[in-house]
Amino acid sequence: MLNLESEDDVLLIGLWGQGGVGKTTLAKALYNDIFRRFEASCFLANVRETSKDSKDLVHLQKKLLSELLLDKGLTVFSVDGGINLIQDRLCHKKVFLVLDDVSDVKQLNVLVGRCEWFGKGSRIIITTRDSHLLTFCGIDKDHICKVKTLEDLEALELFNKHAFLKSEEIVIRRDLVDSALHYANGLPLALEVLGSFLCGRREQEWESTLNKLAKSLDKTINDVLKLSYDGLEDNEKEIFLDIACFFNGQSIEYIMTVLNGCDFAAIIGVQVLVEKSLITKERGTVQMHDLIQLMGMDIVKQECRDDPGRRSRIWLCEDVCDVLSGEMGTDAVKAIVLDLPKTEAISIGPDAFTNMRRLRLLIMINVHNSFQGPIYLPNNLRWFQWPECPFSVLKFPPGPKKLVRLDLCKSNIQVMVDQFKDFKNLKFLCFRECLSMVCMPNLDLTPNLEELDLYGCINLEHAHKSIAYHAKLRFLNLQGCSNLHHLPDVLQPKNLLFLNLTGCTKLQRLPDSPMKRLQIFFVTHLG
Question: What is the value of pTM for the model shown?
């Protein structure tokens, strides 16, 4: 990659990866190995931390010039002056330069703006957490290396090096070592920090330490990882925290749908998180390193250490139970996601969400509640997903609602024809297998609705006339609606692509009018 034999070019090489993965260590090893092959060399460490403003950039330029020219008395008065000096004094020198932990385009522009600033045969290594910076400065893919976490055997070797001294006689159980390795998950920084801390300690201290770390991140590790989060824009911060608290390991398609439904710029936001090494895309899912996830969760917990009802996100079963059963939620709460492995009962009253005026996301999976009356929800709610929801009636304050998705499959919800007045943003409605569904809502009240899923609503008898000419409806699933016996005589939704009438055994006939854009159509067992 360095192609040291070539003397007629200037190469920029990028090393990128998450914080603590070993980019700096690798760059130092390369630097120490080959710096003597060049006329001059310089390792600029911690560029992120030492370039907070223009004065810092001037200081970095001076340091670069002083080391490459061996002139400590050199003076740089301004950023532009530094650029001119670098071009004039280094354009004929074969140099080896390492810029460590670059975080901003400005840093690159004033230190290595163009290859022509340096003499032929020069090599410049840039380490960063943001792959987009490397692309921006024109480094081709063949000269960009992603530094990955260690494989199991490599991780064990590094951990043992720090955790066990050769002269040490203490014997530690293998399961404790395995727990430490699992916690670090191949991240060199974590292996070194944790190994050094545990070195010389007894088994009881190992157990206590690992139990503590399962709940909160080591401060040294957290401080390093959090630098990537601190450099994000607000949109990316919100997306990062949602993934860390709720969606790690889930499908990209689902996550993007939820984030877009919550009015985030999901496509660019997720891409920025990938570029900054905070998440990866693997086999159609979003993956986040365990320690980065812990860091994100800790950011939310720090919003209010003692009261989860004053945090922006709630996801732990105990916290959700306390907040909802005690009606302790506040307008700080933006999202609640509780996905239980099996059905559990939680005491939730009708006013549990009343004070959560900023709540935008509510997902409850395998959550049962004995109360079956109305539930009061805030108008700010954008995504509401609760299979087998026990509440029979949804109540919102007067005024426009922001709800985009409503998924209440297998619930006892009672739907009135004019249920969705003021729901102009609603795009997805799912009432699959809702036995209480006897009438279809008036879709004229939901002009932006794209999907209506009424699969298995066996007590539904009539399709509302509003589906006949709906402008946005793309997906209509009436499969298994065995008592449905009437569709509008004319059915010409402008954008309908999917229609399923399988198992509508009492439906006597289909509408006469052709549906020109229809791509998928299922129909069997008509009456």
Answer: 0.88
